[in-house]
Design goal:
The chain is mainly β. The chain is 13% helix and 46% strand. Strand 10 and strand 11 form a beta hairpin.
Length: 340
């Protein structure tokens, strides 16, 4: 992820110069009337029309592309993939990212996140490798179907992995998933993995780990994840943009939107999701809030609708920003389809 870090730092610097050179009629801490009006509109004024791929946004195309497919002999085994399609076999999808999640172009500290993940029952598969570069690597070939190890170092941004647990064990023993790094170690039961959302700061310098997981959907391919930039442009609002990801960690589209406080003093967000070719995927709408005693992080929860404006799914997650309006930020969540 280090090459990505320096390229993105240049893009941010250029964007900042353009912003400073623009009109500064309003304080960055106060939304103007146009912004409030958009927040009051259903779905923020976004429509159900198709768009250019990635909304025609060059940054979305370059920053939010697909992660590397893992050359893992477990998850690529035909028997493993066939079992994932079976409604008779339990499966859990886990997406973990670590580092300076909201991005910091000034960071110079190299942080070692090397570690392992393991399960007590079933088989642990690896589907995607998220922004590993240079010396970062997954230890392959594996010697154990229940354990996977990696080496990862971050500077100003993040690395991560997407896992799949396939549980064909019919015994009554409790399934456990353990992730262990030099900075973080935790064990979760399979029951917890059905709806797990964890984000934790692990160092004074702001290093964090974010874990999202869910159980295999009742509706085939009816769930997944999303991540991207949750950007603060003023005290209580801004924009978000990122990617829509399926359960196996594959990039499936892009999303973007706005967040803030509307004229009714309600914290709302609105946005839109499109497929990789720009085809309409859904309108997004919901609420957000701050964590207790901390306005630099919080939660989001809402729904997404189809072209008929019928609710077809839910989405929820967490976000993190800097204290000021420096265009840095991060959000990570999961979506679930509730009807075809």
């Amino acid at each position: 992820m280090k090459r990505y870090f320096y390229v993105f730092a240049f893009v941010l610097a250029l964007s900042t110069m353009l912003i400073i050179g623009g009109c500064e009629k309003n304080s960055p801490n106060e939304p103007d009337e146009t912004e409030i009006t958009e927040l009051d509109k259903p779905y923020g004024g976004y429509t159900t029309s198709d768009e250019l791929p990635a909304f025609g946004d060059a940054l979305l195309i370059t920053e939010f592309n697909d992660d590397k497919t893992a050359a893992d002999e477990v998850s690529t085994d035909p028997a493993f993939t066939a079992a994932l399609d079976s409604q008779k076999v339990d499966a859990y999808f886990i997406r973990v990212v670590w580092g300076l999640l909201e991005f910091d172009s000034t960071a110079t500290e190299v942080v070692d996140w090397s570690g392992s993940a393991s399960v007590s029952k079933g088989v642990l598969g690896l589907t995607k490798i998220i922004r590993f570069e240079g010396p970062d690597r997954v230890v392959l070939p594996r010697t154990d179907l229940k354990t996977l190890e990696w080496q990862s170092q971050t500077i100003g941004h993040l690395d991560g992995l997407s896992f799949v647990i396939l549980d064909r064990d019919s015994t009554d023993s409790e399934g456990l998933f353990t992730i262990s790094t030099l900075l973080f170690e935790r064990t979760f039961s399979y029951e917890e993995l059905d709806s797990l959302e964890v984000v934790e700061i692990v160092t004074e310098s702001g290093q964090q780990i974010s874990i999202m997981s869910h159980k295999k959907e009742v509706i085939p391919f009816g769930g997944g994840f999303f991540d991207g930039r949750w950007v603060r442009l003023r005290k209580n609002g801004g924009e978000f943009k990122g990617r829509w990801i399926n359960s196996l960690g594959t990039h499936a589209g892009h999303l973007r939107g706005i967040w803030g406080i509307n004229s009714q003093d309600i914290k709302v967000y609105h946005g839109k999701y499109v497929t990789l070719n720009g085809q309409f995927g859904g309108l997004l709408s919901g609420n957000w809030g701050y964590a207790q005693d901390d306005t630099t992080k919080g939660w989001l929860e809402g729904r997404w609708v189809n072209q008929n404006l019928t609710s077809i799914g839910t989405m929820k997650g967490h976000w993190k920003t800097k204290a000021d309006s420096d265009r840095h930020g991060f959000f990570h969540g999961k979506w679930r389809k509730t009807r075809p």
